[in-house]
């Protein structure tokens, strides 16, 4: 590990000020960053510990929730308002990692966890444009079973590994940010980037910008929401495909719907074409399959991950079917 200095931020202003040091990075629970530092894939000169800041979940007057960036993944999943009003979020979080990791991991850190592409970690032997821009991408002609089917580029085919972020994408979550230039917000769906020709730039964050909170809008249909994760092992494995979905049926028609996909792209993938194909339709397996296909028509599978297209279709149909049965 490369030497670094460590300081615990006293408050948001202190964190933002300390982040101006050359080579500074924020530290949440450390469950991803410290691993990457051990592998020397990350070499921060200074760590600004923000795990003691904003650990509150606040009820908003309009029925939404404001979740501090340092809230642990466990505390968020267990919060009564989340369990009852946004069950998709609880399910997504508990589908990830292990209880011990979820106890340490923070909301802010979860958004910024880095890809699990094995070529990214192999800095002795593999070319990776994310690690070193311009180097090439050994995954494209390599073993790409876990990689992207949507939104990839000739530079990078990695997927974003977070389960929590897939649920947040479906829930219209908003990310609150703070820097020396002031505060701003971004929709979660605009926070992460597609790889394009700069896969090393993964989000719209400016250097030194701090995530302070995530806001969930009041979303009554989210009371009937679910998360399905398909993976190689039933625990401690990242998603091959995951689906976050919420569905509201009125008078036998789909009044409103949210669908987001994980394991398919460099960012949590909001399935806007699936949603548009479903609004106003009568719920049925055929309608769900056609809506899934509307999204997956854009899929560009690679040599080893063609199975993901069919798996995504089936998982979307299963998730929406589960929500329909709840309302029968
Ligand atoms: C064995 C293992 C299995 C896992 N399995 C899963 C899984 O199945 N599904 C899943 O979703 N996740 C999984 N994870 C990942 C885990 O969810 C992440 O490691 C965790 O969410 C990261 O949170 P953290 O607070 O520890 O982040 P840290 O490691 O502290 O930080 C991660 C990044 O976020 C930045 N950061 C932290 N807080 C802020 C902030 N407030 N503002 C700006 N930047 C910030 C840091 O600078 C760093 O770049 C797994 C992890 C491990 C080790
Ligand atoms: S897919 Fe992306 S992260 Fe993986 S080797 Fe290629 S450039 Fe690197």
Short description:
The chain is an alpha+beta fold and 328 residues long.
Helix and strand topology:
Elements: E1 5-8, H1 12-18, E2 24-27, H2 33-38, E3 46-49, E4 57-59, E5 65-68, H3 73-78, H4 80-85, H5 87-94, H6 99-104, H7 107-111, H8 118-121, H9 164-170, E6 174-179, E7 182-187, H10 188-191, E8 210-216, E9 225-230, E10 241-250, E11 253-262, E12 269-270, H11 272-278, H12 285-296, H13 307-326
Parallel strand pairs: 1-3, 2-3
Antiparallel strand pairs: 4-5, 5-8, 6-7, 6-8, 9-10, 10-11, 11-12
Helix pairs in contact: 5-9, 11-12, 12-13
Attribute tags:
Enolase-like, domain 1, 328 residues, 12 strands, binds iron/sulfur cluster, binds flavin-adenine dinucleotide, five-stranded antiparallel sheet, Uridine Diphospho-n-acetylenolpyruvylglucosamine Reductase, domain 2, alpha+beta
Characterize the structure shown.
This protein is an alpha+beta fold and 328 residues long. The protein contains 13 helices and 12 strands. It has helices at residues 12-18, 33-38, 73-78, 80-85, 87-94, 99-104, 107-111, 118-121, 164-170, 188-191, 272-278, 285-296, 307-326; strands spanning 5-8, 24-27, 46-49, 57-59, 65-68, 174-179, 182-187, 210-216, 225-230, 241-250, 253-262, 269-270. The longest helix has 20 residues, at 307-326. The site of flavin-adenine dinucleotide has 30 residues, from strand 2, helix 6, helix 7 and strand 8. The site of iron/sulfur cluster has 14 residues, from helix 8.
């Amino acid at each position: 590990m490369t030497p670094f200095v460590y300081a615990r931020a006293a408050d948001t202003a202190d964190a933002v000020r300390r982040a101006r040091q050359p080579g500074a990075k924020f530290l949440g629970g450390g469950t991803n960053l410290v691993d990457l530092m051990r592998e020397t894939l990350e070499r921060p000169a200074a760590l600004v510990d923000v795990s003691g800041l904003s650990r509150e979940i606040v009820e908003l007057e309009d029925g939404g929730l404001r979740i501090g960036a340092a809230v642990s993944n466990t505390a968020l999943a267990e919060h009564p308002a989340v369990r009852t009003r946004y069950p998709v979020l609880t399910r997504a979080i508990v589908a990830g990692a292990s209880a011990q990791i979820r106890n340490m991991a923070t909301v802010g850190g979860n958004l910024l966890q880095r890809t699990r592409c094995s070529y990214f970690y192999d800095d002795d032997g593999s070319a990776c444009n994310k690690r070193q821009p311009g180097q090439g991408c050994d995954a494209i002609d390599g073993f790409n079973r876990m990689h992207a089917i949507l939104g990839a580029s000739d530079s990078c085919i990695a997927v974003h590994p977070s389960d929590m972020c897939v649920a947040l994408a479906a829930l219209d979550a908003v990310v609150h940010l703070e820097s020396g230039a002031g505060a701003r917000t971004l929709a979660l769906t605009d926070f992460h980037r597609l790889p394009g020709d700069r896969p090393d730039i993964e989000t719209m964050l400016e250097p030194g910008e701090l995530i302070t909170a995530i806001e969930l809008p009041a979303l009554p249909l989210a009371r009937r929401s679910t998360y399905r994760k398909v993976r190689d092992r039933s625990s401690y494995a990242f998603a091959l495909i995951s689906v976050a979905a919420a569905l509201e049926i009125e008078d036998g028609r789909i009044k409103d719907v949210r669908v987001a996909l994980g394991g398919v792209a460099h960012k949590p993938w909001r399935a806007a074409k699936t949603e548009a194909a479903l609004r106003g339709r009568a719920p049925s397996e055929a309608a769900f399959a056609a809506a899934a296909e509307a999204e997956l028509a854009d899929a560009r599978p690679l040599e080893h991950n063609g199975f993901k297209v069919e798996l995504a279709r089936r998982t979307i149909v299963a998730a929406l079917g589960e929500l329909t049965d709840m309302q029968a």
